[in-house]
Amino acid sequence: MSSFVDRLRGGPLRKSESLADRQIRQARESGSFDGLPGSGKPIPGIDDPHDDDWWIKEKLRREQVELELPPTLEIRFGKRDLLASLHDIPDEAEVRRRVDVLNKRIAEVNRVPSEGPPSTTTLINVDEALAAWRNRR
Question: How confident is the model at residue 9 (pLDDT cuts 50, 70, 90)?
């Protein structure tokens, strides 16, 4: 009876080899894994920090879904992005213009109640932004 079961499963198991391990070994030996897409390439995102919401972010990216942020988060991220990219701005007048535009948007969002979390975003000090811009140049 044992030999019949072995033949159904593809032969006797090697010592300490599970059924799944044997099937993988047999597929590898027969070349079933040769030429698969991504073969020999690193797994995308394998070294990224852990994110519990990776699956939903990947789904949104794959489906090309763009979500609109609440205004309070939009200005918070806008401030962060502007301060991080000051070194890319070509001249002082443009720095002043961009800070002024964002400050007007921050004041507008802070003035009226809006959806999403409450706004705690403060205005950008133009002189401090210009000093940071000069230091990065």
Answer: low
Query: What tokens does 123 get?
Result: 């205005």
Q: What is the chain written as a DSSP string?
A: -HHHHHHHHTSPPPTT--HHHHHHHHHHHHTTTTT-TTTTSPPTTTTSPP-TTHHHHHHHHHTT--PPPPHHHHHHHHHHHHHHTGGG--SHHHHHHHHHHHHHHHHHHHHS--SSSPP-PPPPPHHHHHHHHHHH-
pLDDT tens across 32-46, in order?
988 888 888 888 888
pTM listed for this prediction: 0.55
Q: Are the C-beta atoms of 22 and 28 separated by less than 8 Å?
A: no
